[in-house]
Amino acid sequence: MVLGASRGGGGGWGGDFNEVLYYGQCNRRTGSSAQMSKFHGWVSEFALIDLPLQNMKFTWSNFRLHAACSKLDRVFITQNWLEKFPSATLIGLPRPLSDYCPLLLDTHRPSDVPTPFRFENMWLGNNLSKNW
Questions:
Q1: What's the distance, Cα to Cα, between the start and end of the chain in Å?
Q2: Dihedral (C-alpha) 52, 56, 61, 63: value to the nearest 10 degrees?
């Protein structure tokens, strides 16, 4: 998922990155510290902000008796995006069928703002215009 922003730059990226940023984001020390370092370097290079997950610590589990759990899914945003959506929150949803939990990004934009009508010129060229 790529979060767009209007002109002026800034946006974000969300999804399964299949890597943790630091060992506190997993309940077992698994994986490569070199990979973790590269991932952290990428986040730092682009000055990304890891939007905090509000209601849970981990987004993945293998559901075994002594389960391995990690925060592999996340949303990274830029400072510019955060300034446009300062009240944005990230919430983990229940995972009834998957070992990953879906994430809900809520920007808290007012729902009562009217959406502008947009006219598509292609509508003039089809049978729809004949029926009007």
A1: 38
A2: 180
Rounded CA-CA distance 74/6 in Å is 22
Question: CA angle at residue 87 from 111 to 94, to 5 degrees?
Answer: 80
Provide the whole-model pTM. Answer: 0.71
Q: Which backbone phi and psi does 113 adopt, to 5 degrees?
A: -75, 120
Cα separation, 60 vs 100, whole angstroms: 5
Give the Cα-Cα-Cα angle 60, 87, 13 (nearest 5 degrees). Answer: 45
Taking only the tens place, the pLDDT of each residue in 24-67 is 888 877 667 888 889 989 999 989 999 999 998 888 888 788 88
Please tell me the distance from the alpha carbon of residue 117 to that of residue 129, in angstroms, as a whole number: 17
Closest by CA position to 93, among listed 104, 85, 105, 82:
104
- How far CA 19 is from CA of 4, 61, 109, in Å, comes to 23, 13, 30
pLDDT tens readout for residues 91-131:
998 877 788 888 999 988 766 667 778 877 777 765 555 55
Write out the two tokens for 51. Answer: 């939007």
Pair of tokens at residue 9: 């730059």
